Amino acid sequence: MTTWVLVADNSRARFFAADKAASPLIEVRDLAFPEARLHEGDLVTDKNGRDRNPGGNAHGFGGESEHKHDGAERFALQVCSELEAARTSGVFSKLYVVAAPAFLGLLRKHQSAPLRQLVAGEIDKNLSTRDSADIRKHLPDFL
């Protein structure tokens, strides 16, 4: 049965398939989340709130990367939904996940238990812009 390889970061997810254990990778799907490439200031139109304490010092409120993290969280959920749909359709029997370290954690968080059981290996590297031959070199010889 087919093995899938997910290669992702917080702005792009690429899905590859290999029909046999030593087969080259064939890209079957590509998801993009261009919002992740924007600067935080481009995502929000308002400045953080300000507060003055009695000593006269001003303090800012709000996390600077809150919106970027929320976007990455939504994208990880979308990627896992795509994987779950493929799993329930029987499209693949084994999955390798190659993702940027922080995004890998978000993917783990959103994987269902049955999907997690199909994960044969994980690599915490950002290879999302690499070609399929280079990605294949980072995976086991026999998928």
Verbal overview:
Strands 3-2-1-6-7 form a 5-stranded mixed beta sheet. A hairpin with a 3-residue loop joins β1 (3-8) and β2 (12-18). The protein has one domain (1-27, 66-143): Nucleotidyltransferase, domain 5 (2-Layer Sandwich). α2 (66-88) packs across α3. It has 5 helices and 7 strands; from the N terminus they run βββαββαβααβα. The chain starts with a strand and ends in a 6-residue tail after the last helix. Helices cover 34% and strands 26% of the residues. The protein is globular, with a radius of gyration of 19 Å. The protein has helices spanning 40-43, 66-88, 101-110, 113-117, 132-137; strands at 3-8, 12-18, 26-32, 50-52, 58-60, 94-99, 119-123. The mean pLDDT is 85. By secondary structure, it is of the alpha/beta class. The longest helix is centred in the middle third of the chain and has 23 residues, at 66-88.
